[in-house]
Amino acid sequence: MAFITLRQLLDHAAERGYGVPAFNINNMEQGLAILDAARDTNSPVIIQASRGARSYAGDIMLRKMIEGLVEMYPEIPICLHQDHGNNVQTCLSAIQNGFTSVMMDGSLKDDAKTPADYDYNVNVTRQVVQLAHMVGASVEGELGCLGSLETGEGEAEDGHGFEGKLDKSMLVTDPDEAQRFVLETGVDALAVAIGTSHGAYKFTRKPTGDVLAMDIIEAIHAKLPNTHIVMHGSSSVPGEWQQIFNDHGGEMRETYGVPVEDIVRGIKHGVRKINIDTDLRLAAAAEFRRIAVTSKSEFDPRKFLKPAMDAMRKVCADRFEAFGTAGNAAGIKPLPMSEMAKSYARGALNPSPALPQAA
Question: Is residue 83 annotated as part of the catalytic site, yes or no?
Fold first, then answer.
């Protein structure tokens, strides 16, 4: 198997009615855990790296690590995605380093902190789309700012996230504006704001419709039935891992993530990419703490990392099964980016075929 673009993968998911988890990685252990779970469940996968991850591991290391995973797991289609690109250069540098897909998050300005207006978002996203599609790479855009409907605040992830408080109008994507945005930019996938946020502390109670606006996803899907919707900040922050973490010296306060059943509801209404990071971090950190407390003389890093990998593998397998991703890897024949570029050039993929054309 080979690298796959986000557009080809999500088109396949849409045709068959499943969603694809997008797991953030920083290191080898995360990559092995994700791909082990993908192989065990016969699932295609999106592996994504934030700007923080690229700084931490380095582009060369990340690229070579993913190339190694492709070689080790030849049966698994792998999309390598830049998460939350803050400007055109970040996205282009990712493509130059072998990423098959990029996110241009124009909901915030270049500093990744200041909310941007609609015109800025359209202009910068459209630039990335035009350049990326020339070489066959896919582009995800974002409309609306990711943040809590409970507090009006965001949670920075690797330095990306607005500061202060915003009103609800900026924290929930407008369906009519979403339709315009997709037509004006030609993005392959659209991340929407529905009240989720980065990190572990998403909700202070099990979320209901007043803080997790799943109805917005349904409204956007009704207007854009063939546009691939993306849910960011969608870790479920499992209670069992919180318990293990706290039972072994941790101090995580009570928190709730996005329930898996709500994500499954979203998949029925056009959600094709689901971003997950905290769940893997939490499962791994819980195992680090457990080993440190129960085996106090242990100092071999592998004795900590192997249980952490097992924990992350289980989380990944659970998500592949729940989202319907399992069983779909074998049915995908990845197209080279050069072929995707030809499709974009002749207008077969941009804008999304089922979108109403501008007058």
Answer: yes
Q: Where are the domains of the chain?
A: 6-344
Catalytic choice (83, 105, 174, 279): 83
Q: Can you give the pLDDT at residue 357?
A: 36
**SS3 letters for the chain?**
CCECCHHHHHHHHHHHCCCEEEEECCCHHHHHHHHHHHHHHCCCEEEEECHHHHHHHCHHHHHHHHHHHHHHCCCCCEEEEEEEECCHHHHHHHHHCCCCEEEECCCECCCCCCECCHHHHHHHHHHHHHHHHHCCCEEEEEECCCCCCCCCECCCECCECCCCECCHHHHECCHHHHHHHHHHHCCCEEEECECCCCCCCCECCCCCCCCCCHHHHHHHHHHCCCCEEEECCCCCCCHHHHHHHHHCCCCCCCCECCCHHHHHHHHCCCEEEEEECHHHHHHHHHHHHHHHHHCCCCCCHHHHHHHHHHHHHHHHHHHHHHCCCCCCHHHCCCCCHHHHHHHHHCCCCCCCCCCCCCC
6-344, what's its fold? TIM Barrel (3.20.20)
What are 19-76's pLDDT values in tens digits? 999 999 999 999 999 999 999 999 999 999 999 999 999 999 998 999 999 999 999 9
* Predicted TM-score (pTM) above 0.85: yes
